[in-house]
Amino acid sequence: DADVTQTPRNRITKTGKRIMLECSQTKGHDRMYWYRQDPGLGLRLIYYSFDVKDINKGEISDGYSVSRQAQAKFSLSLESAIPNQTALYFCATSDFNWSRGAYEQYFGPGTRLTVT
Amino acid sequence: TQLLEQSPQFLSIQEGENLTVYCNSSSVFSSLQWYRQEPGEGPVLLVTVVTGGEVKKLKRLTFQFGDARKDSSLHITAAQTGDTGLYLCAGGSSWGKLQFGAGTQVVVTP
Known about the structure:
heterodimer; A: mainly beta
């Protein structure tokens, strides 16, 4: 079974609609992240959470909100979707690898979102 | 503004050839990570380097972290079709955030 799961995997929605993307993890990590990926731009951080009571904006948080319902669950919402939010969305978790001396991230399979 | 510049953006080679992908920045990072991503999947961590000048080998893949911890390279020897994918470098801060490059799409043909 996958350690980081995302639902839905694909979604088509219309401009102005509210949509929620969900992420669950069984890795037991406290830290979770939401990224979007656009061709030629790599992965850009939307929001991150270092524990259930901690939520932080990333570099492109405008138009998005998040909810950390539990250690294992981190949801991303688009309050009023617009076409330029069409992208691949990835959830990730991270933990400190003591043998390597750095935080390492583990990604879900992604959600392909299309806003028409 | 992309803090991490990857080059080239696209690389197409034949099986058996060697290739090198570069990741450059003006910023110093606590760690440098390389991920590979295949279509329809999320990025998968290949390696983490943390010491300036560090070289790590993973079978036919060799990763190097620059002495000043601002740049890195990934070298693949005798590429195979299974090496096809999007290679992403990411610079890590001491408290865990990653800054990603735009990626290098590698295509290995038989």
